[in-house]
Amino acid sequence: MKIETATINFPCPKCNQEFPVSLFQLHEGGIITCPWCLASNVENELSGLEHNLESLGRSLQNLKRCMEKKQRTNQ
Q: Potential cystine with 37: which of 15, 18, 57, 75 (Cβ 3.0-4.6 Å)?
């Protein structure tokens, strides 16, 4: 069985109806929309994106500090 074709029944957090979703889609992320009430997991996806952007910002700040420190020691 390939992950691209395997599906599970995914419960809608709003209406509790279950509908098939591929494991590949769950693994790759993305928006899952309920076919009955059209609720989606967009808030979860945006929360994950926000967390990743905050982490990127911290990494860039650390890199900037390291570069500034190295520049001061080379002067």
A: 15
- CA 18, 37, 41, 28 dihedral sign is positive
Nearest to 31, CA basis, from 44, 22, 19, 18? 44
Q: Please name the amino acid found at residue 37.
A: C
pLDDT of residue 3: 67
Paired tokens of 20: 């098939």
- Determine the average pLDDT of the residues in 51-65: 91
Q: Report the run of H or E that residue 19 belongs to, with start and end.
A: strand 18-22
Spatial separation of the C-alpha atoms in residues 32 and 26, rounded to whole Å:
8
State the DSSP H helix or E strand holding residue 25, giving kind and residue range, or none if neither: helix 23-28
